[in-house]
Write a structure and sequence with these properties.
- By secondary structure, this protein is an alpha+beta fold.
- The chain contains 30 helices and 19 strands.
- The longest helix is centred in the last third of the chain and has 33 residues.
- The chain is elongated, with a radius of gyration of 42 Å.
- The structure holds manganese (II) ion.
């Protein structure tokens, strides 16, 4: 639709306002020429197009350019880029056209802005991860040129100001993005007033009733508050004047959004919020005295009148916030016993507070294009590092990123006295990661102000910290609970992930080997039993623990047996007659073991074999004589023998096997292995047919293909036992053969 005369008039008027505003940033006539050229170029490019509200489209880029110059204070190139920001997106012009007309730098900025538009225009549905992926892409432009992001914030601000003409579902999407990303970004870049406005506008569209309620309340309490502030300010004004300070004092109500947040967070009503306003003193510094001294001078004048709250002094003059903010804040007890916050700033500080980083380099655009320096640069570097970390998924990235946007800071020092800024609540470990991820990954301890402490110790402003490292240390999952910075979190997670991947692989190999040995198919049923037993919630966790050596498979047969959910138990118990009974010899029927193969120097002494350890000929033995003169023979390694020897050393009787005779002794062998058809037969055949040994009892239990059992048999000596154990071990399916000293049915 062709523009009407009225449209043209409106466009011309806004254009003039822009040129007027740009006068202050144009150092030469060619600067203004460039801006005019951009204005007419954009106007022509968007010719005939209207916004949802019905107004000519060109009013939008001109408004954005106005925000860029008036509210943020960027320079000529940024204004030009703002004017052109939708040209490539919405018209037939290309980036190379822009380059042709406006040069490479502006073309690159427009390109960045266009790419960001694509991110936001793409219909992502409500898939958070997809949306997060897009945000991540958008933030990539941060590393190229901060101005692109700042212009994008201005673009967003104008869209928020004109959001009323958008359909409801669009409003929802736009306000969510604003509160999720743009307001925090504005905060991080020090654009306080823009941040506040973005938040207030978001609230207005998201919770219109809440917004209106608070707005009305603020208006209704306005006059009483005004009176109170006047009463509060009067003595301060007097004192400042008496000291020849050039100043402005104002009482500002906090933003609707911040009041709303406080009501939400604390679950309180509007009337219960006491710090609804703050007093701001902005002074024009006298040239010869440092601003810092003047801040403290004003502080001392104010606190001569009102008592300060000792723990509420915030000195961002000595050490500015990471986003560049400088001011001296304190909370004092005002009239009627009410606490009030007082903010003390110079005019320069005020400008930085209002315009953020842009104010620092108001006339030095070159610096911004190179990514600024100092704190902002450091932060951008962090963002870049995080963006480049390949394993971090987009949602995690954004969580961490948001963390870095809002943290309030403390300042600490390296052993060499270098200053590092970290968020409130940071630990020595955060500090270690802040220095370098390698230092963090190998941190074992820290020296805080020369005292050795744990790496998990919280650090405070002014601490001097040295990190102690060791090559034997690697990050643990628990570390995540002891760090607050995005960098530490992502470094630890990355390490664990890499480590976990290796561990999973290792664990899988170990497990498969073991299962192959047992001939077991690792079925879902097997895992249903294994996972809870090894406190794992899924296979990966199980493999990872196994690979990391946190768990091992030594008792896996037992686990598979004991945790049997379905009772598939095979049970054998074979009883064999006592060979001595079979032999039928009278003396052998006596409970006491036969004399003979053993023992002692004196052949007449009666003895018996201790049941606790069942020694057999060949074992090293020792005898213990009781009061009746009866001797019990133990293995020397038997725990009971050791106890007796310690307590009744006088009863020890040296003993040794005299000769091996054809008498057999009872012994027990524990067996474990894989149950298979015919394995019992193989064992029985080996023991009774091939080796001609008497079995007393064989008990086997089998679960899920794994069996465990005890074989009780009579052997003549330890050599016999060793032979039979070796032969048993060779039977296919038998995994473990172990002599046990005692076996109680
Ligand atoms: Mn736009």
């Amino acid at each position: 639709m062709e523009y009407t005369e009225k449209d043209e008039k409106q466009i011309g008027k806004l254009g003039e306002a822009l040129f007027e505003s740009c006068r202050k940033i144009c150092k030469q006539e060619s600067d203004m020429e460039l801006i005019r050229k951009a204005f007419y170029f954009a106007k022509d490019a968007h010719k005939g197009v209207r916004r949802k509200s019905g107004e000519p489209y060109i009013l939008h880029p001109v408004s954005v350019a106005l925000i860029v110059v008036n509210e943020i204070g960027l320079g000529v190139k940024s204004v030009v880029a703002a004017l052109m920001h939708d040209v490539v997106e919405d018209t037939d012009y290309t980036v190379s056209d822009i380059e042709h007309f406006f040069g490479e730098k502006i073309a690159r900025m427009v390109d960045g802005l266009t790419k960001m538009s694509e991110v936001f225009l793409s219909d992502v549905g409500d898939e958070t991860s997809k949306q997060a992926e897009n945000f991540k892409k958008m933030l990539l432009t941060l590393s190229d040129d901060v101005r692109v992001i700042i212009i994008k914030i201005a673009d967003r601000l104008h869209n928020m100001r004109t959001l009323g003409s958008m359909p409801a579902h669009k409003q929802m999407k736009i306000t969510s993005e604003t509160i999720y990303l743009f307001a925090p970004l504005a905060h991080r870049l020090g654009l306080y007033s823009i941040k506040s406005e973005l938040e207030d506008l978001s609230l207005k569209y998201r919770f219109p009733d809440d917004y209106k309620y608070i707005r009305d309340k603020i208006a209704a309490t306005e006059s009483t508050r005004r009176q109170y502030i006047d009463r509060f300010n009067a003595p301060i004004i007097e004192a400042l004047k008496a000291n020849n300070i050039d100043f402005e004092i104002s009482g500002r109500v906090k933003s609707v959004y911040s009041i709303w947040r406080k009501m939400q967070r604390k679950g309180i009503g509007f009337d219960e919020i006491y710090d609804i306003f703050a007093i701001r003193i902005v002074f024009k510094p006298s040239p010869l005295i440092p601003e810092k001294s003047q801040c403290w001078h004003i502080y001392s004048l104010v606190t001569d009148i009102y008592k300060p709250k000792p723990d509420r002094i915030r000195d961002w003059v000595n050490i500015p916030k990471a986003n560049g903010y400088e001011a001296l804040h304190c909370t004092v007890m005002g009239p009627d016993g009410e606490w009030a916050e007082v903010q003390i700033r110079s005019q320069r500080m005020e400008e930085i507070a209002e315009r953020g980083f842009a104010a620092h380099w108001k006339y030095k655009e070159e610096m911004l294009s190179r990514g600024a320096d100092g704190e902002l640069d450091r932060w951008i570097k962090q963002v870049r590092e995080a963006l480049n970390s390949p394993t971090e998924n987009a949602v995690e990235f954004l969580d961490n990123f948001k963390l870095s946007l809002y943290a309030s800071e403390i300042v600490v020092f390296t052993p060499k006295g270098d200053q590092r800024t970290l968020p409130q609540g940071a630990t020595a470990l955060d500090f270690a990661y802040d220095i370098h991820s390698k230092i963090g990954n190998s941190a074992v301890g820290a020296k805080i102000n020369h005292r050795i402490v744990s790496i998990f110790t919280p650090i405070g402003s002014g601490d001097q910290i040295e990190i102690i490292t060791s090559n034997n240390v690697t990050p643990k999952v628990e570390w995540l609970e002891h760090v607050v910075t995005a960098k530490a979190k992502s470094s630890i997670k990355n390490f664990l992930k890499k480590d976990k991947l290796n561990n999973i692989e290792r664990g899988m190999i170990l497990f498969e080997e073991k299962m192959r040995e047992f001939g077991i198919q690792p079925s879902a049923r097997v895992f249903r039993k294994l996972l809870p037993a090894y406190e794992s919630t899924n296979k990966d966790e199980f493999y990872s623990k196994l690979g990391a050596g946190i768990i091992n498979l030594d008792g896996v047969e037992k686990v598979l047996r004991q945790n049997a959910a379905s009772k598939m138990i095979k049970y054998w118990s074979l009883q064999f007659p006592n060979p001595f009974k079979l032999l039928g010899g009278g003396g052998q029927e006596k409970k006491k073991m036969p004399e003979g193969p053993l023992l002692l120097k004196d052949d007449d002494i009666k003895f018996s074999i201790a049941e606790c350890c069942s020694p057999i000929p060949g074992d090293q033995v020792v005898g213990f004589k009781d009061d009746a003169g009866h001797i019990t023979v133990h293995k020397r390694s038997c725990k009971e023998a050791v106890r007796l020897a310690a307590q009744h050393g006088e009863n020890i009787v040296p003993a040794q096997w005299s000769s091996f005779k054809a008498v057999s002794y009872l012994t027990h062998i524990e067996l474990r292995g894989i149950d298979r058809m015919g394995i019992m037969l193989d064992m029985a055949k080996l023991i009774s047919e091939e080796m001609n040994i008497n079995i007393r009892e064989l008990k086997l239990q089998s679960h899920d293909g794994i069996f465990e059992g005890v074989l009780s048999l009579y052997v003549k000596s330890i050599d016999d036992l060793k032979t039979i154990m070796a032969r048993l071990g060779k039977i296919r399916g038998i995994e473990k053969v172990r002599r046990i000293e005692a076996y109680n049915e």
